[in-house]
Amino acid sequence: MLNDSKVEANIPASDLTRAREFYADKLGLTPTEEFGEEALVYRTAGGTAFSVYRTEYAGQAGHTIAQWHVADIESEVHDLKAKGVTFEVYDIPGTTWDGEIASMEGLGRAAWFKDSEGNTMCIDEAAAGR
Fold first, then answer.
1. Closest CA to 42 of 13, 62, 82, 79
2. Long-range contact pairs involving 61-64 (C-beta distance under 8 Å, separation at least 24)
3. Torsion angle in degrees (nearest 10) through CA of 86, 67, 110, 121
4. pLDDT surpassing 90 at residue 103
5. What is the spatial distance between Cα 85 and Cα 79, in angstroms, rounded to a whole number?
6. Residue ranges of E strands in 14-126
């Protein structure tokens, strides 16, 4: 049943215009579909998709909303910082930090930032062999 289905993330935005600008200017993403002032759909070259939709509940989750798996986390953090993205540092047990990049034994490395709507996003690089 669900095991054969695709899964998409839905990311809330209180201001869809502001979110579109953030995703374009900071993340380099362009929507592939638009649904008026209600939603934007993004499809990555990696074969996944996510929607950004208008709602008054944006930015209220206290956890990571979406995560991008990358091959070179240092380059991604560097490029995003150059575009004005600010990274978060959290107190996570068992985690060591090198600047904005967290290392978690056996899992790999990760860095977190908030989008224009206050949603927490993550980029990660898997540990070797994962």
1. 13
2. 61/119, 61/120, 62/120, 63/120, 64/112, 64/120, 64/121, 64/122
3. 20
4. yes
5. 9
6. 33-35, 39-43, 49-54, 64-69, 87-88, 95-98, 101-104, 108-114, 120-126
Q: How far is CA 103 from CA 96, 111, 121, in A?
A: 5, 9, 17
Give CA–CA dist 100/73, Å, rounded: 10
Q: Is the pTM of this model over 0.85?
A: yes
Q: Collapsing DSSP states into helix, strand and coil, what is residue 21? A: helix
Q: What is the pLDDT of residue 77?
A: 98
CATH dotted code for 2-126: 3.10.180.10
Question: Looking at the DSSP assignment, which residues form a beta bridge with residue 97?
Answer: 102
Q: How far apart are the first and last CA of the chain?
A: 26
Write down the domain spans for the chain.
Answer: 2-126
